[in-house]
Amino acid sequence: MMQGMGKWIGRGRPWGPDDRTGGPLDAVLEQVRGRVPELVVERLDKTHEGDDDNLFFLGVGSDFHLVQLESCPGGLGPFIVVDDDSQTSVSDPGEAVAALLGRLGRNRESAG
């Protein structure tokens, strides 16, 4: 069970730069990785056939799960960006990138 987004608990499977959803989410993650090279991304593992696996956990280095990102199937928007303090829903991929970078930066500062 997740005990806070600042600690890794292994809720997903690694989602590398070559993994693709087929939608705008791919460009969002690519842009964030370009600005945060040490970014770690995991995609939620489905435990039941009806589960939604469009949930991603993002962290930096050993600070896993600083931010959660949810998309619609196929990597489509809207994108929901969540951390321990807030939740934002955006439709534009550029706004998703900005929200992720802001949250990752803020949460890294407070964790350090």
Task: Give your account of this protein's structure.
- This protein has 112 residues and is of the alpha+beta class.
- It has two helices and six strands; from the N terminus they run βαβββββα.
- It has one domain (12-111).
- The chain has helices spanning 25-35, 93-111; strands spanning 12-14, 39-44, 55-60, 63-72, 76-82, 87-90.
- Helix 1 packs across helix 2.
- The protein starts with 11 loop residues before the first strand and ends with a helix.
Topology:
Blueprint: E1 12-14, H1 25-35, E2 39-44, E3 55-60, E4 63-72, E5 76-82, E6 87-90, H2 93-111
Helix pairs in contact: 1-2
| Rg from Cα | 13 Å
How can the largest sheet be summarized? 6 strands, antiparallel
Strand content: 25-35%
Low-confidence stretches: 1-8
> What is the count of DSSP helices, taking H or I runs of 4+ residues?
2
Strand order in the sheet with the most strands: 1-2-3-4-5-6
Terminal CA distance reads: 23 Å
Total beta strand runs? 6
pLDDT averaged residue by residue: 84
- Shape descriptor: globular
Oligomer: single chain
Q: Helix/strand-derived class?
A: alpha+beta
Sketch the topology as an H/E string, one letter per element. EHEEEEEH
Number of domains: 1
Fraction of helical residues: 25-40%
